[in-house]
Write a structure and sequence with these properties.
This protein is mostly helical and 96 residues long. Helices cover 47% and strands 0% of the residues. It has 3 helices and no strands.
Amino acid sequence: MVDRLRESAVDTGRELIEAARNDNRWRTVAKQMVQAWNEGMASLRSAKSEMRFKGLTAAIATAGFSDQTPPEPPPAVGRTELLARPRKAKKRRPAR
């Protein structure tokens, strides 16, 4: 079953790389997906792995994809752009 999953990921990964070559809008997404799939396949172990199912490393190198781009850090905890900004205190006029 693991080998079938690897085979499917490799075949789909190659199709995704081809889609990224044909339409540049897919390049960033394809790069991230294929790199993640390759890492996942590298973490699997199988007693009868064949060389062609070992991963997408060669296809990634041929496509010229760089390493994965790390995600942006989340915003500060407890702060949100959706809340209204605190009101500035109005200066009180002195009583007459």
